[in-house]
Each structure stands twice: as structure tokens, then as C-alpha cells.
Design brief:
Length: 279
Amino acid sequence: MNLNEEIYRIKKIIGLLTEDDEFSKHMEQGMEHKEVENLQKILKIDVDGIYGSETKKCVEELQKHFNIKVDGVVGPQTRDILNKILKGNNEGWEGCKTKNSDIELKTTKPENSEVVGSEWNSCKAWTSKGGLSKWGNLFKITKNDSEFKIDYDGPSSGLSIAHAKGGSDTIHQVFNVLICEINPFLFKGGLKPNIDSITTTTGKNGKNSLLSITIPLVKEDGTFQLDRRGGWGHDPGGSNMSQKCSKLTSEDKFCAGPVKNVTTGPFGKITEYFIVHQI
């Protein structure tokens, strides 16, 4: 028995460590549990108990460090490593070096709070529940320097993809997912959404509703963000977005809009107001 193992044994005897400190659960992205908090402590990242994209990336980094299968999932091999680290056998592991800027989806805890949607409950929930890695059967996103498009093929209600609980989310959440996904992409700079030419198409696919949103992009110096406010079955008006633009303009920042967009489909009517502004 080496010194670290002896220290671990003594700590167990005097009650400084309990069985609860040891890792026993299978963990993967989208999970929320106390054991995830202990994992995040070993990874040396922010502790919130939610297995999001940053936690997954850092688990992959740990797996590479210990030369085991890299899949971002805490299975038997990774649990063994984590329990060895608990006992002091860290083999040079000093914590995760992966930064949020290395993760394409920055909406949970972005490095820069100016990313629109970064603090929205909808975006936090979308990310923590797995985002595209979990809901890729319903959502398809295509993006390049001329266009950002989100296609949705799924039920018009009961999605449970965002902040609503009990499956009460509706197809209106697709517009929230749009914001959660497009703004981290725009954060790289040099691309500006053309809100005057946003198009939406709708339809049916068996029992599912179809909704596609296309945002044309133009190349322009600066870092731009898209913001929105809308309602399903009602028109919330554009005053909220107008006030935001007025405030940004008073701070000598570019802001255009709001532009009204009405989407009508088998699910009813969605009215959205879009603005684009520079950060």
C-alpha cells in the first residue's frame, strides 16, 4: 500500500471520506445529479451539478490524459480513474484546461455575457438537457457565411426541451433554440444577420409539424447578435425590442429593427419581432 492509499484509508476510518464520495453512477451529457458535482470538482470547473457541454469536453480531456477510451461519458473505466484520483493517484492530472471558448455551444456559461441568450433559462435548459446531441432527431441546423437555417420536424407541443416542465413546451421554443444556437456562431465576428429577409416555412409530416427558419447572413466588420421577442397565438408587440434598440443606440452601438415576422402553420400563428445589434 502506497502513501496516498494509506492516507485515503485513514481518512475513511476517521470519517473524512464517505462511500458517497466515491463514484458509482453512469454519467453523460444531460444528466443532473449530486455525483456530477463531485465530478466537476475533480475536473476543476464550475460546479452546478449539470452534465453540460463543458463537463463532457473536460471528461474527454481526462480520458485522453489517462489514455482510455475518449467518449465524454463516465462509464466503468472512467469511474475507476475518478476513484483513483479520490485516493490521491492523480498521475499528473491537475484539472481541465478546456475553455468554454473551445466549445461550439457557449450558451450555458459563455466567456462573454454579451452573447444574447447566454443567461436565458431556455438556453441554459436546452444546453443542460443535451441540446442537439439529444434532440438531433427533431432539429437540423445548417450554417455557413451566407445563411443560418434551423429545421424542426416534431410535435407542436410537449417538447420539454427548455425551461418549461412537464412537457409543456411548444413549437414556439424553436425560436428560442434559434437564438441559443445562432449567437455563439455569430460571436466569432464578421457576419451580420439580415433581419429584413428572414423567412419561415411550415407544414406537416404525419403527426409532426414542420417549421424552418432561415436567417440570411452578410459579411460585415464587427460582432453582431440576433435578439427576438414573440408569442404563439398572440402578438406581444415590438415595444420591448424597440426599447432595447433605443438603449443601444444611446450608447453609440448599432441596432436595427424591430422587424415583424409572422409564421402561420398547422400549429397556429407565431408572431416574432427581431432586432440585430453590434457588440
